[in-house]
Amino acid sequence: MGIRVRSTLLDALEWVEYAFQPAGEAPPDDVAYGHQRHSATVVDDAANVPPKSCESDGIIGFGERPVAVYTADCLPVLIADTQQRRVAAVHAGLKGTLAGILDRTVERLCEDGASPDGLYVAIGPAIAPCCYELGEEMLSSIAQSFSGSLSHCWHREQPHNPFAVRPQAKATQHGIWFNLPQLATEILLKAGVPAAHIENVGFCTYCMAENGASYRRNTHFNSGYQSRFSWIRRRGG
Length: 237
Ligand SMILES: [Zn+2]
Description:
The protein is of the alpha+beta class. It has helices spanning 8-11, 94-99, 101-111, 137-145, 180-190, 215-221, and strands spanning 16-23, 42-44, 58-61, 67-71, 75-81, 86-92, 119-123, 133-134, 154-155, 176-178, 198-200, 228-234. The strands form three sheets. The protein has a six-stranded mixed β-sheet with strand order 2-3-6-5-7-11. Strand 5 and strand 6 form a beta hairpin. It binds zinc ion (ZN). Zinc ion is lined by residues 128, 130-131, 161, 164, 168, 204, 206-207.
């Protein structure tokens, strides 16, 4: 049974419909999504009808067609532009985040008439710092791509997750525990999105989600994994 994850911020926008679907559940029939490559490429929804017509990691919805991303442990980020009533779905793993996919999506919305303070952003289910160990040497390569301070984005000790429904990832190296949702948050803040407009649902795919939701858990237990679709659209009316 999949768990329904909701965003308080997006729930408050009556013109928006969205879902962070459980792993393995099919997306809506008329959805548009790209062939994802951990890139900074953002396209219009029409470019990915039918789905995977082209490579993109960010997709903008101009009409009522839902736009989606599929993820396992990477971040799905859903954005609503309250000024133009446009929406965007972003696939933001560590690599794509550092490549600039979030900045590029905000820029693209602003080229079309949005302003950053009119954007509302929900950061969906992804591997959280309770389960995301990286080699410490990764911090310096991350720092080369991110101009701000990383001090809030990682922990020396593995954080305990009181909401875990299965064991957290075991340390496999003397690494650090990285907070990708926090890095995404800091990038969005730098892009001008107000803190009050950014919500991290705080749902870890490794230790909180249904079975088969985590790519990394699969690499540890060979338990299999399935993609999770997250989508957003402007409501018809
Ligand atoms: Zn976890």
